Amino acid sequence: MATATLPIGDLLGRLWELLVRRVDPPLFAITLALVGAGFVTLFSAADQSVARLTNQAVSLGVALTAMWVIANLPPQMLSRAALPLYATATLLLVAVALFGIVVNGSRRWLDLGVIRFQPSELMKIALPLMLAWYFQWREGRIGWQDFVLAAVLIAVPAWLVKRQPDLGTALLLSASGFYVLFLAGLSWRVIVGLVASGAAAGPFLWSHLHDYQRQRILTFIDPSTDPLGAGYHTTQASIAIGSGGVVGKGWLNGTQTHLDFLPDKHTDFIFAVFGEEFGLIGNVLLVAVYLALIGRAMIITSNASTLFARLAAGAVTLMLFTYAFVNMGMVSGILPVVGVPLPFVSYGGTALVSLFIGIGILMNVQANRKLVAS
Amino acid sequence: MRQRRLFSRRRRGVESLSFGAQELRNPERELQRFRGRLAVAAAFVLVAFAALVGRFVYLQVAKHDHYRTLAETNRIAIVPIAPNRGVITDRNGVVLAQSYSAYTLEIQPSRTKNVDATIDALAGIVEVTARDRKRFRKLMEESKNFESLPIRTRLSDEEVARFAANRYRFPGVEIKARLFRHYPFGEVASHAIGYISRIHDRDLSRIAAWDETADYKGTDTIGKVGVELSYERELHGTTGVEEVEVDAAGRAVRTLSRTSPVPGNNLRLSIDIALQAAAEAAFGMRRGALVAIEPATGDVLAFVSKPGYDPNLFVDGIDPTSWQELNESPDKPLLNRPMRGAYPPGSTIKPFLALGALASGRRAPTQAYADPGFFQLPGSSHRFRDDKKGGHGMVDLTRAIVVSCDTYFYLLANETDIDDTHRFMSTLGFGKPTGFDIEGELPGILPSRDWKRQRFAGKQYREEHRKWYLGDSISAGIGQCYTAFTPAQLAHAIATIANDGVAFKPHLVKSIEDARTREVRVLEREPAYALNVKREHLDVIRNALVQVNREGTSATAFKGAGYVSGGKTGTAQVFSLKGEEYREHKVDERLRDHAWYVAYAPADKPAIALAVLVENGGFGAQAAAPIARQVFDYYLLGLKAAGPAPLFGGPTPDAEDASD
Q1: For labelling alongside B11, which of A44, A367, B159, B182 has CA 20 to 30 A away?
Q2: Which range of residues forms the domain containing residue B32?
Q3: Do B52 and A105 touch (CB under 8 A)?
């Protein structure tokens, strides 16, 4: 038989082909560069302890597998899964509201015995897929009614998450939904109207915020009001970044980092460690890599073959941008503190898996792009 | 027409979905429009990233000198200062729990290359025992954060000096001044006072739920059980903040500003520690519980759970060997028996059931019944036996309590619906927590039809298991058959009887002293409720209880007492000896009956009411009543006992004196 005599090299070659067939090299290289920067920074942030790196490496393994599986799914599978995923995520959010366990004063988790699961994470992926699927289904006859219905599809999970309470995630969910509406062609008049009414409703919304949420916004305005709490984060992060200067203090030499001034330095505030040790040059390089990531993702989006693929890829792209921008913005003090990790860099398995699922979606879209130049 | 068009379009839509095929009205225009939108988004991304870079330039170039100064020449660390935890005293001001400051030697594992080698080297400078090492291992396993963990606590001044001289050899090892809790009485009252121990994950979520996370920044320990747990927020105090300037190595150089911590409030318990110690001594090696209450206030005077444990073991993390011993001992020293041990009440239930019979009019005090020594349900051959063969003769309500006649109560139970009994007994506090001011109280079991239905609701049970039988009522009539009360419930109920039917919630904390203003806040305890019974009915019961101690089952224990007391003995079956007669010496010690005794004294103006339980003690009159006698003697007359309460042997279960 032919297979029996097949050289081992050929077998490996086929296996390699199977592995890389649907992986987009530029996108993959850029994400790996970010992950690499994450490991380098994490080693410093964890005081050169290897334990955290090992944990992160295990998470990376899981995340890459998830990415590969998503990238290799048949193209219509993603759109078919959208509605069931969305329905499941919504039901789970309702379940959280009814039976969820309270951690740190918020009801966000479902206790599944072995693991705790945060359904809002699933919704982050399910919502844009759902909206993309809906617009694809209505393609060619999309009217204002569809945008109203889409707004409801966004509002329901966003409201469920907001009352957990988790305002940050609710806003991110709304943003991912809004991106789909925007790309699907939501009228500029409506967008301007939304922004204007949002500004007008500010005082009303303020009265509906929880105390800790108001505190965060107040602390954002004046960090010195809460030296032991949230203001401490902002102040210390600004000192870390600012003292880094143009060239930085050098890897493993950040004093803010190593004298324990920086809180959450492995997770949400890891960018402060990066900024302190690598300076302005490092920061600009990092922003450039994110820009490259978003640029590549936009090219993939623009070449997508179906409306569903375009909208889903577009939403993923803009969410990657949003995470990177919001995180670097909050650490450097131009945005209030919300719990958003720096994509691909922050320590934490759940976020890494979610992000690589997003990359998997982009790769899936790229592999099924229109092959005819338009 | 329009309907049909919509329908056909939908059909096409579904097809296009399932085959993933393309179907665009004007593909080129749609695509151009989409790319236009994407271009707008790209422009937005560029603007946002430009804003970020602008911010970086501002921080790292324009304000670089400012931040460099902040970070390098003038590093300001904000150091939380843990408040001193409140002092716990007994009702007379004797200190039961106090914190003091001492030096600890701490290792930060994340900054130490080889923890074991470091500990070995440290052992050459200060004493490090095997127990210290084991405890440190356990702490390392439990701590997720990269925190500093104590290898040695309470260092002597000499040890501190020796380490300071060798400090350069040990990066990541530090001497810290920390607060320690000390419980001078050790085991005595341990279940009431409880203990503090290192903060764990589940404590963190509790702290977060109070919204006090910032206030616990400097605190390592938190109340885990007893008063230490339930009054945590009074005891903890408010954390202070110190702004210090640190040098390049992170050592504090000078203090810039300081907000002092506010110490926690001091608690005065209602417990009399001398009485408590006397009560615990009276138990000797016996296992069991005692709850003594001041009837007129609900003050808990003594709260005994034997065996106890030494709370000092827990304070800086218990070592695994001690923990295993406590946790796996068959004597269950960690079980809070007064509140969490539910035992069948046996005959101690009789005065309460009798009061219910008087209140409902089902029995008059003078009505007498013939006792042949057993009771039979019509049409059944099963004999519910009395303790005394041949019976007690003609028995009225008083005599039924004094000689603890079972047959009288079988007859009463036969005529009383179990739900009526349940209703009356609930008003005495059975079947629900009595409302102690510390957490974890269990409700016990006060059976009813609903209770049985719910208890046997599972699929493995059939309807015949769920149904309430008259036979159940008969056994419940002498405090057996499902019925299970906690010592706290019986103490609370007998205190209510002693206090003319006015019930108070039992409480361990009497007053709270504000640490700053020295202002004492007495926790005003309003009567919880009054029983709906007539005074004359209460008097009948109380007269009967006095006679019990004068000539009834516990007369031996109270012979020659310098006061008049009322009481009732009880013996609770641990397991059923199917129809056989109970022979104490034949039964394994752990399966022997539990001995009960409830009492109050002095009879005319009760100052103390109590419930005593001796696990596997045998007869209440023999094992439990002598403990109550010693407690009363001490509390009312100041008489100190020479040793543990005696066990009265002598009377056999068949003798009238000992029949419970």
Answers
A1: A367
A2: 2-61
A3: no
Nearest-angstrom CA–CA distance, B104 and B79: 18
Asked if residue B294 and residue B259 are part of one domain, the reply reads no
Most confident segment among A2-11, A159-168, B270-279, B566-575: B270-279
- What are φ and ψ of residue B181, in 5° steps? -100, 140
Peptide bond into B345 cis (omega under 30): no
Give chain A's domain count: 1
Is-catalytic flag, B347?
Answer: yes
A198 occurs within a structural domain: yes
How many contacts (CB atoms, under 8 Å) link A and B?
163
SS3 B522: strand
Secondary structure class of B655 (helix, strand, coil): coil
| Angle at A351 (CA atoms; ends A65, A104), nearest 5 degrees | 140
Neighbours of B143 (CB within 10 A): 15
Q: Where are the beta strands (DSSP E) in A149-221?
A: none
> CA-CA distance, B242 to B251, in Å (whole number)?
14
Cα B589–Cα B595–Cα B600 angle in degrees, nearest 5: 160
pTM for this predicted structure? 0.61
Establish if B166 belongs to a structural domain: yes
Could you give the CA distance from residue A243 to residue A259 in angstroms, rounded to a whole number? Answer: 14
Interacting residues of B367 by C-beta distance below 8 A, sequence separation 6+? B396, B397
What's the burial of A72, exposed, middle or buried (CB within 10 Å: 0-12/13-18/19+)?
middle
Task: Check B347, B448, B475, B659 and give the catalytic one.
Answer: B347
Residue A39 reports pLDDT greater than 50: yes
Q: Which residue has the higher pLDDT, B270 or B477?
A: B270
Give dist(CA B492, CA B292) in Å, integer: 9
Retrieve residue B375's tokens. 């009771």
| CB contact (8 A) between residue A243 and residue B24 | no
- Contact (Cβ atoms closer than 8 angstroms) between residue B189 and residue B271: yes
Q: Closest partner residue to A238 among B59, B248, B250, by Cβ?
A: B59
- Identify the closest residue of chain A to B43 by CA–CA distance: A295
Q: Under an 8 A CB cutoff, do A139 and B60 touch?
A: no
pLDDT digits (tens, 9 = 90+) for A256-298: 776 666 767 888 889 999 999 999 999 999 999 999 999 999 9
- CATH code of the domain in which B130 resides: 3.90.1310.10
DSSP one-letter code for B584:
G
Among the partner residues B38, B110, B205, nearest to A47 by beta-carbon distance: B110
- A319: domain range? 24-367
Can you tell me the mean pLDDT for B623-635?
A: 87
**pLDDT of B9 over the 50 cut:** no
Domain count of chain B?
Answer: 3
Higher pLDDT, B421 or B45: B45
